[in-house]
Amino acid sequence: MLLCVGGGIAAFKACEAARLLVKAGAEVRCALTPAAQRFVTPLTFHALTGNAVATGLWDGGGSDPTILAAGHVSLADWAGVAVIAPATADLLAKLRAGLADDVVTATLLAIEPRLWIAAPAMNERMWRSPATQENVRALAERGVRFLGPAEGEMAERSHVGPGRMVEAQEIASAALRALGPRDLEGIAVLVTAGPTREALDPVRYLSNPSSGRMGFAVAEAARDRGAEVTLIAGPTEVAPPAGVRVLRIVSAQDLESAVNSSLDGARVVVMAAAVADQRPSEFSEQKVKKKEGEETLRLVRTPDVLAGLGTRFAGAQGRPLLVGFAAETERVEENARDKLARKNLDLIVANEVSQGFAGDENRVVVLGRDGGRAELAGTKRAVADALWDRIRALL
Ligand code: CTP
């Protein structure tokens, strides 16, 4: 793991990240920008990692002969994952432009962006500036993964807002996950996420507040493990992960068509979408006008996409594994087990949603056709990884 430290006050948290990574068994090397060395010393990282620290393009990487031999390129070759923490506004701008005027930027230029994990840290106005936002977007499109920034108090105490670097623990666990198994290499998977909208007229619809985050985490985790991911997503505020094929849909009917046309070759289908079960029986081309008194809205069922797959593949050879989600407010496991059987699924993820779908954390119970049961909790990404561990075991 290559830890690239930028010049910001949050550099002190990079020391803790280095310590946690070493403790977890990763081999860690560090590269510090000249600005970073004004906040923390190379000696700190040397002592924490036991490895020489790269501090300049011209110093050959300290006393380590392997770095000395071929400089930053050998460091780039060596790295499995590059963590950039703190990723300052200046560093992000340089990385976007492809500058290579210090050991950090030169090394990163020789590492594929999809292997970078960046933890931005800066004043909230610098974060919000159009320049920084453009740089972040461009880097994300190249496959760079961003952690944070978190909201909160800045080093300048009067400032509050997004810009704080996420905690060392979060950086370390994301980095360790990125170094994790590529046990889905080349496997095609289909993931659905987010809500559907069922239109009543051109300006009104029935929907639900699914954020899409859980399905996006499932797609992202599969991507990181080497899968070829097709993500079918309803309307969401959150952007889908980079590096996966994204098909946008609106209604349950669209979802059904998109799933059917993307099934070819899929070994796993994970239906995390919160599909509306009903749609208005009629769509009015013109905006529906209000009437006096009580009104009745007639609804008809939408296609149950997952149940359709369950029926279609029942007993079929080489069928894809079918994984459903069950959003429940009561008798969570009982209802989920019923859906597992009724829809002919391999796994179902039961989700207690009386507090809503929002947030980055989730707590679920995974039930298997074979009677297996596992409780998973943590960030949506951690839950997604644990779910893939189970799916992998069934493949
Ligand atoms: N699902 C689907 N098509 C639908 C409704 C649901 O494919 N029209 C999928 C969801 O993506 C999810 C699973 O079925 O993976 C269970 O969804 P849920 O709405 O919780 O279950 P329902 O069968 O709709 O049962 P109910 O609404 O009665 O709880």
What does this structure look like?
The protein has 395 residues and is α/β, with parallel strands linked by helices. It has two domains: 2-178, 3-Layer(aba) Sandwich (Rossmann fold), CATH 3.40.50.1950; 188-394, Rossmann fold (3-Layer(aba) Sandwich). 34% of the residues lie in helices and 24% in strands. The protein has 13 helices and 20 strands. The protein has helices spanning 11-23, 42-49, 65-78, 89-97, 103-109, 124-128, 130-141, 168-178, 213-224, 252-262, 305-312, 332-342, 380-394; strands at 2-5, 29-32, 53-54, 82-87, 116-120, 145-146, 150-153, 160-164, 188-193, 198-201, 204-206, 228-233, 245-248, 268-271, 278-280, 299-301, 321-328, 347-352, 361-368, 373-379. Helix 4 crosses helix 7. The two termini are 30 Å apart. The model has no long low-confidence stretch (mean pLDDT 92). Cytidine-5'-triphosphate binds at residues 252, 271, 273, 275, 277, 302, 304-306, 324-327, 339. Residues 252, 271, 273, 275, 277, 302, 304-306, 324-327, 339 line the site of cytidine-5'-triphosphate.
